[in-house]
Design goal:
The chain is 49% helix and 9% strand. The protein is α/β, with parallel strands linked by helices. The N and C termini lie far apart (50 Å).
């Protein structure tokens, strides 16, 4: 059993938990009331999002709710702040009775300290019920404490299967953690008809590779939340994400990564940060992951999400607009070749679908593309959106040589359209 050191949390809440009037909410309840989701999605929201008393409200009722939200927000902030202080005190008392081996966790503890006040405010705006907030916060604090205080961080295999409990279902917890941070009135899910095509392809025993841009560490959870709204939670649960080293080594990110199916790999842009001996070890690990990719594609019926850029998008320095980062043509080519090999001998085929993600305002990335593990994070609420595109015929688009460039072009077009809708 790993020993843990006592958390230093007396100032964890910080000065951010002061009484203040917060803006009128645009919670899941109002999003539903606005008639922007299907009947199935309304039922899903009713089950997932706390505090939804009525699924259909007239504009006047929504206006009154917004006014009520403004009037009562100071009290809700006070109440949730008190709950937070109580739960932190309980956690400190519990952990003080455990061992005192120190893990490499100072950065993660500092991140949690700055993240928590804005996270509480997001629940105030979303009007999360106090009991639900307490349960979620208690689980979250214990999950983070486990990740921060272990002497050695959780070790991911080349192919990691989501940890679904007991005691914690990390997949469900990760989704619940981010729900209050989504601005439901402003979200978009475009190209849902292609999701049906994806599910039919998987049901037939073939594979699907989603070639996407990547903007925030929370992209897997965002994809799950948005697919849930459209009645496709099962697809989100089975998706395998190609994950870089940051989300599998940063102690704050590790708990969320534990809840996803992952193919863990170190992108080429970061290999140069290691010495020659370390590079050899990392390259061997990458080869093991590629072998797992090949095995899964030969097995068939799998869906893999990959960002060929190898990292998150950044804002254009001249325009300030976030844009999809340049795709690594070799990364796209690798999946093309693996798919070709898997299909030999009447094996399962691999089909490619484009996906644009507009998520950069939710836990936004740092300006520096090479920021280190333990980066600063914000819990500010934000609109998010995704757009699926139709299946791409890799052979008709030029095969291994020309297909990667065409993929970038298509994802950029989807993103431009999504951006025009999100602004």
């Amino acid at each position: 059993m790993q020993r843990r050191h006592v958390l230093s949390l007396p100032l964890l809440l910080g000065a951010g938990l002061c009484l203040a009037v917060v803006p009128a909410h645009d919670s899941a309840a109002n999003f539903v009331a606005a008639g922007q989701v299907s009947h199935h999605s309304k039922l899903a929201l009713a089950a997932k999002a706390p505090g939804i008393a009525s699924m259909e409200k007239q504009p006047v009722r929504r206006l009154l709710d917004d006014i009520g939200s403004i009037v009562t927000s100071p009290y809700r902030l006070f109440l949730l702040s008190q709950i937070t202080k109580q739960e932190v005190a309980t956690l400190k008392d519990q952990r003080s009775k455990q061992g005192s081996v120190f893990g490499d966790s100072k950065g993660a503890a500092a991140t949690l300290k700055t993240f928590l006040p804005t996270y509480v405010r997001s629940h105030v705006i979303a009007r999360t019920q106090p009991r639900h907030f307490r349960n979620l916060l208690r689980t979250s604090l214990n999950v983070f404490a486990d990740a921060i205080t272990t002497k050695e961080p959780y070790q991911f295999e080349p192919y990691h299967k989501a940890v679904r409990g007991p005691p914690v279902d990390h997949y469900k917890w990760g989704n619940d953690f981010f729900r209050s941070m989504v601005k439901y009135r402003s979200l978009r899910v475009e190209g849902v008809e292609y999701v049906e095509d994806i599910k039919k392809t998987l049901a037939a025993g073939d594979n699907v590779v989603l070639l996407a841009n990547h903007q925030t560490e929370a992209d897997p959870q965002v994809l799950s939340i948005l697919l849930e709204l459209e009645g496709h939670e099962d697809l989100a649960e089975q998706t395998i994400f190609v994950a870089g080293h940051k989300v599998t080594t940063d102690r704050f990110a590790i708990p969320f990564s534990m809840g996803r199916n992952l193919l863990t790999i170190l992108s080429k842009k970061y290999l140069d940060t290691f010495n020659e001996t370390e590079r050899e070890v990392k390259n061997a690990r990458n080869q093991a992951t590629v072998s797992e990719m090949q095995r899964l594609l030969k097995e068939g019926g799998h869906i893999i999400w990959v960002a060929p850029s190898g990292g998150r998008d950044r804002a254009n320095r001249e325009t300030g607009r976030f844009e999809p980062a340049k795709f690594d043509e070799k990364s796209v080519g690798l999946f093309y070749l693996l798919g070709q090999k898997a299909a030999k001998g009447n094996g399962p085929k691999t089909h490619f679908f484009p996906l644009a993600m507009w998520t950069h305002r939710l836990v936004p990335p740092p300006k520096d593309a090479k920021s280190g593990v333990g980066e600063h994070r914000s819990a500010a609420r934000a609109p998010v959106g995704v757009q699926f595109g139709p299946k791409m015929d890799a052979e008709a688009m030029g095969g291994r040589k020309k297909f990667p460039l065409k993929v970038q072009e298509i994802v950029n077009e989807l993103y431009d359209n999504l951006h025009s809708l999100m602004r």
